[in-house]
């Protein structure tokens, strides 16, 4: 997977590069690392942000989390419906 990522130089019209943040043994350990990393990055942003822009960042994160939860819930319902149809 890492070698495949290294070959991509552009995403559409935007130059791109990949930075490996963590290589973990399990998905769970990667998720834990990303949660910690994202908290640290948010704290860095918070230091430099005005109160209004920090509130906008928080709202954006909440909206994003709500969308992710709705998507996850929808997928679970679809999976359960599909498994019910198979039985």
Task: Describe the fold and architecture.
The chain is mostly helical and 87 residues long. The protein folds into two domains: 1-48, no CATH class; 50-87. Helix content is 72%, strand content 5%. It has a two-stranded antiparallel sheet with strand order 1-2. The chain is extended and about 55 Å long.
Which features does this protein show?
2 domains; single chain; extended; two-stranded antiparallel sheet
Quick recap:
Pfam families: RNase_P_Rpp14. With 87 residues, the protein is mainly α.
Layout: helices, strands, pairs:
Elements (H helix, E strand, L loop, with lengths): L1 H5 L3 E2 L2 E2 L11 H22 L2 H36 L1
Q: Could you describe the largest sheet, including whether it forms a barrel?
A: 2 strands, antiparallel
Shape call: extended
Rg computed from alpha carbons, rounded to a whole number of angstroms: 18 Å
Structural class of the helices, strands and pairings?
A: mainly alpha
Count of distinct structural domains? 2
Q: Termini, distance in Å?
A: 36 Å
**Low-confidence sequence ranges:** none
| Overall average residue pLDDT | 80
Give the strand order, joined by hyphens, for the main sheet: 1-2
Helix content: over 70%
What fraction of the residues are assigned to beta strands by DSSP?
A: under 5%
Number of helices: 3
């Amino acid at each position: 997977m890492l070698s495949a990522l290294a070959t991509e130089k552009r995403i559409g019209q935007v130059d791109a590069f990949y930075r490996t943040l963590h290589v973990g043994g399990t998905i769970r350990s990667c998720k834990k690392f990303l949660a910690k990393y994202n908290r640290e990055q948010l704290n860095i942003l918070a230091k430099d942000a005005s109160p209004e822009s920090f509130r906008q960042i928080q709202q954006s994160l909440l909206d994003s989390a709500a969308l992710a939860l709705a998507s996850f819930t929808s997928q679970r319902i679809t999976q359960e419906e599909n498994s019910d149809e198979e039985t």
